[in-house]
Structures are given as structure tokens and as C-alpha cells.
UniProtKB/TrEMBL annotation:
Belongs to the ClpS family. The gene is clpS. This is ATP-dependent Clp protease adapter protein ClpS. SUPFAM superfamilies: ClpS-like. GO terms for molecular function: peptidase activity. It comes from Breznakiella homolactica. Residues 20-98 form the Adaptor protein ClpS core domain.
Length: 103
């Protein structure tokens, strides 16, 4: 509601904006029969900046369970990382795939 400042000027009351946290998305690597374990570890370290230990653990999840969660990101970052994985895999002639799914 406008406030009267005494000189005829009206100022709008401060309107509080409700800020909403951005939605989160998981990036998940999928197992296949052709991509090497070493390449998966390399991808995890290069694209997702995982340590050797974390990359190895995630790679084993992918290998043994069929999929492994790499991280949780905002939508744009998750899609960018998925595109980077697919691009690097194609360049190295591997069928490695990953999914982006809403948390």
C-alpha cells in the first residue's frame, strides 16, 4: 500500500520477494559392457572434479550396481555435465551414458 510522504509523493511499500531455492537434479552414470573402468574414473575426475578415491567408489557402483550417482546440481549445470560426459565418451569411442533426474 502506498505511503504518503507529506509532500504529495507516494512511495510503494517495500514488497518482499519470496526467493525459491533452485530445483536439484541428480547426475547418474549408467553401466555398459564396453566403457573401461579407467575411462569412467577419468571422466569422474576430469568433469566432476572427484578425488581418485571418490571416483573409484562411484565407478564400482556403476560397474556392480548398474548405475552410480555422481552428484546433485542445478538443472543447467547437471545438463552441461551430462553433455560433457557424452561428448568425451564419443571422442573416445565409448558408449558411456548418464542421466539427469529430478531429486
Amino acid at each position: 500500500m502506498p505511503e504518503n510522504m507529506g509532500n504529495g509523493t507516494q512511495l510503494a511499500s517495500k514488497i518482499e520477494e519470496q526467493l525459491k531455492e533452485p530445483e536439484e537434479f541428480r547426475v547418474i552414470l549408467l553401466n555398459d559392457d564396453y566403457t573401461t573402468m579407467d575411462f569412467v574414473v577419468e571422466v569422474l575426475m576430469h568433469i566432476f572434479h572427484k578425488s581418485l578415491e571418490d571416483a573409484t567408489r562411484i565407478m564400482l557402483d556403476v560397474h556392480l550396481k548398474g548405475r552410480g550417482m555422481v552428484g546433485i546440481y542445478t538443472y543447467d549445470i547437471a545438463l552441461t555435465k551430462a553433455d560433457q560426459v557424452h561428448s568425451l565418451a564419443r571422442q573416445n569411442e565409448f558408449p558411456l551414458r548418464c542421466l539427469v533426474e529430478k531429486v
